[in-house]
């Protein structure tokens, strides 16, 4: 039953007709548990309320796989507006972005030009930017662009996916840059040639790269809702005297809220990944497909 539900939700996430209907008839009211709204003005209000509870934030302007130069430039402009808003309202928020939203699928040069525009403003306004990691086919270019940018700007990080065979050597290679990295399990469907197919191997590799990056003395964001990964990290940092300033936990907005609160109360830094933008529909459907129980939250929100 769950499999059928997941398949249907993924189908609906890509269906243009249903997207239009859902947007027109108010599914956004249900989406508000997982998405901050359609504009940066909606998002800044939500960031403020999250900050007031003691959480840090990273915002993500939804959108990916752009093939049109104008759209890529507009998405980069949107990031720049977001950075200025965060700074002017003195919010405790970083910015996360996907390189395909600012032109990586057009060319590496378009993505790099847009990143340079974004980073100049981010450096001036002292806002940290994380480049999300996308599918394996974009991993090499993402790491190479990251290396170029990190040699010019301090306030930039990226993501390493534990399910990839290459992640351990990426951690070793990037170490000379003292990078601030977000470590995740990995969210895309990849072939067994490049990724561990078994959950246990992914989890083992996740723990391995968490230890490596922390012991290298680098800032580490552990982005996971998995209790075993979180508990493993807590024990590891305690046994190795790693200060709480050297790492943080990151979770998605609206997911495992009680766990987020508990970590905060235990004195850990917790950052909430907060998406916003007109493209909220596909994101929402993917979160529901990950865990069909989320459908009830969306329905509750709609009726409220
Ligand atoms: P896992 O999937 O094993 O889930 C553990 C438990 O968490 C579940 O049993 C459930 O209780 C809860 N849970 C997980 N997902 C849920 C959901 N949707 N609704 C409700 N409960 C849920 N990936 C990537 O490839 N590139 C990236 O840049 C990023 N960036 C990123 C940032 C942040 C802040 C997070 C939290 C995650 C990412 N990811 C990502 C996604 C990541 O790779 C991974 O797919 C998800 O975090 C799910 O894996 P978990 O580690 O949470 O464990």
Task: List the topology elements.
Blueprint: H1 2-13, H2 16-24, H3 27-31, H4 40-52, E1 56-61, H5 69-88, E2 93-97, H6 108-125, E3 129-131, H7 139-152, E4 156-161, H8 167-174, E5 180-184, H9 199-215, E6 220-223, H10 227-239, E7 247-252, H11 257-265, E8 270-276, H12 280-290, H13 294-303
Parallel strand pairs: 1-2, 1-8, 2-3, 3-4, 4-5, 5-6, 6-7, 7-8
Helix pairs in contact: 1-12, 5-6, 8-9, 9-10
The chain binds dihydroflavine-adenine dinucleotide.
The site of dihydroflavine-adenine dinucleotide has 23 residues, from strand 4, strand 7 and helix 12.
Walkthrough of the structure:
The chain has 304 residues and is of the alpha/beta class. Helix content is 52%, strand content 14%. The chain is built from 13 helices and eight strands. It has helices spanning 2-13, 16-24, 27-31, 40-52, 69-88, 108-125, 139-152, 167-174, 199-215, 227-239, 257-265, 280-290, 294-303; strands at 56-61, 93-97, 129-131, 156-161, 180-184, 220-223, 247-252, 270-276. Strands 1-2-3-4-5-6-7-8 form an eight-stranded parallel beta barrel, surrounded by six helices. Helix 9 links the parallel strand 5 and strand 6 (220-223). Helix 9 (199-215) runs parallel beside helix 10 (227-239). Residues 132-133, 159, 161, 184-188, 223-226, 250-252, 255-256, 273, 287, 290-291, 294 line the site of dihydroflavine-adenine dinucleotide. Dihydroflavine-adenine dinucleotide is lined by residues 132-133, 159, 161, 184-188, 223-226, 250-252, 255-256, 273, 287, 290-291, 294.
């Amino acid at each position: 039953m769950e499999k059928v539900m997941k398949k249907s939700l993924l189908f609906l996430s890509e269906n243009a007709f249903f997207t239009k209907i859902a947007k027109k008839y108010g599914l956004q009211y249900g989406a508000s548990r997982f998405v901050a709204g359609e504009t940066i003005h909606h998002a800044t209000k939500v960031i403020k309320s999250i900050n007031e509870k003691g959480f840090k934030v990273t915002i993500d302007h939804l959108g990916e796989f752009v093939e049109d130069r104008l759209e890529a430039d507009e998405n980069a402009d949107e990031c720049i507006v977001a950075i200025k808003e965060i700074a002017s309202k003195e919010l405790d928020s970083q910015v996360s972005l996907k390189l395909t939203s600012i032109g990586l699928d057009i060319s590496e040069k378009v993505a790099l030009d847009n990143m340079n525009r974004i980073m100049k403003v981010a450096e001036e306004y002292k806002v940290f930017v994380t480049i999300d990691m996308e599918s394996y086919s974009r991993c090499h270019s993402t790491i190479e662009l990251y290396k170029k940018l990190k040699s010019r700007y301090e306030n930039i990080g990226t993501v390493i996916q534990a399910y990839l065979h290459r992640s351990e050597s990426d951690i070793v290679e990037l170490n000379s840059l003292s990078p601030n990295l977000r470590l995740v399990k990995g969210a895309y469907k990849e072939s067994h040639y490049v990724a561990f197919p078994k959950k246990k191997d992914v989890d083992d590799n996740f723990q391995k790269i968490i230890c490596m990056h922390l012991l290298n003395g680098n800032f580490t964001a552990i982005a996971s809702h998995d209790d075993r990964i979180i508990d493993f990290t807590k024990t590891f940092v305690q046994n190795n005297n790693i200060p709480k300033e050297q790492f943080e936990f990151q979770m998605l907005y609206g997911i495992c809220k009680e766990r987020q609160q508990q970590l905060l109360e235990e004195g850990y830094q917790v950052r909430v990944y907060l998406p916003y933008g007109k493209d909220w529909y596909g994101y929402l459907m993917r979160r529901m497909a990950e865990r069909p129980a989320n459908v009830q939250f969306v329905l509750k929100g709609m009726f409220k």
